[in-house]
Structure to design on (335 residues):
């Protein structure tokens, strides 16, 4: 059984200009010990999908439809009699069974509280530990994530840590209650390359040691290649392709996936072939296209792409794609 299973999730944001359709009919699953990468441009719906699952949407965000099954339990808002009951349920799950690593630790960490307080509070809230036991666990976590001299540094404030060390503290906070699912929202964005590699290696090591599932939100396909077992490609609030890392890198089917791969340098390619950026801009999710969200940027778009969302083509148990070019009646290139 999947640890997390999301079925037909749709999330909108209510604005004065209309509903922003941020997440549109998204379905996927992730198993224990598995790493799922979610890839796409800014505004593709990656983070809002995860915030919907975590119950962290902005006040104007609404989950309009879909199911969220976590650890065998339906935690969809519609499954609760009131908003208060839903929020109380999510308080027992967040930071306990499900945790999130945010991309900007200085936004997540409270600048006026010592690291000790910020590590101990989740333990006191979700366990029966005494304060002394919680402090010992906090020191253990700091050692686990590679913070030197934890007995000294636990008394310090976030501004006294480097960017890489702050991110390690955020990871430690996420691990306080041994979560079954860790969601990492672009955790290496603000770090230099060397520190990025260390943080990614740390997340992977902790995942193997705890058997936690990890969902990695990223725009960096290098991160995906290094860590992920399965990959989701999102565009315009839609899930357009999903598969194993091998499927996505060596047998991509959607034009958007191919476009993303053409934007990155291939170290094995000795030719002087220039990188190919994807022309155009992402769709306006206040008024998204009726059909394929990628239609206005796709060189191979057909009339049907503009008016109807593509059917899902299944290539294997793990590899699926939504593109009319995979339809048996679609014209082939060169025809």
């Amino acid at each position: 059984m999947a640890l997390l299973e999301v079925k037909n999730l749709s999330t909108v944001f209510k604005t004065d200009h209309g509903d922003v359709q941020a997440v549109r009919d998204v379905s996927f699953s992730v198993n224990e010990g598995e790493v799922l990468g979610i890839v796409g441009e800014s505004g593709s719906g990656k983070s809002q999908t995860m915030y919907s699952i975590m119950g962290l949407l902005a006040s104007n965000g609404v989950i309009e439809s879909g199911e969220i099954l976590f650890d065998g339990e339906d935690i969809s808002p519609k499954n609760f009699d009131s908003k208060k009951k839903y929020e109380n349920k999510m308080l027992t799950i967040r930071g306990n069974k499900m945790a999130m690593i945010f991309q900007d630790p200085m936004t997540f960490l409270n600048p006026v509280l010592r690291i000790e307080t910020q590590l101990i509070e989740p333990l006191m809230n979700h366990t029966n530990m005494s304060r002394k036991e919680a402090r010992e666990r906090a020191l253990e976590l700091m050692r686990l994530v590679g913070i030197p001299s934890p007995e000294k540094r636990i008394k310090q404030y976030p501004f006294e840590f480097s960017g890489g060390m702050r991110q390690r503290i955020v990871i430690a906070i996420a691990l306080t209650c041994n979560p079954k699912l860790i969601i990492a929202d672009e955790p290496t964005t603000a770090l230099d390359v060397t520190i990025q590699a260390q943080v990614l290696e740390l997340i992977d090591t902790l995942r193997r040691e705890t058997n936690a599932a990890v969902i990695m939100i990223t725009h960096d396909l290098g991160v995906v290649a290094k860590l992920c077992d399965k990959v989701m490609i999102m565009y315009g609030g839609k899930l357009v392709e999903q598969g194993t890392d091998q499927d996505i890198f060596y047998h991509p089917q959607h034009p958007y996936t191919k476009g993303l791969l053409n934007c990155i340098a291939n170290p094995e390619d000795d030719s002087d072939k220039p990188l190919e950026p994807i022309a155009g801009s992402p769709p306006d999710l206040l008024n998204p296209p009726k059909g394929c969200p990628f239609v206005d940027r796709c060189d191979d778009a057909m009339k049907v792409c503009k008016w109807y969302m593509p059917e899902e083509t299944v290539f294997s148990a793990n590899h699926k794609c939504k593109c009319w070019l995979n339809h048996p009646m679609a014209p082939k290139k060169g025809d």
Observations:
- Residues 193-210 form the longest helix (18 residues).
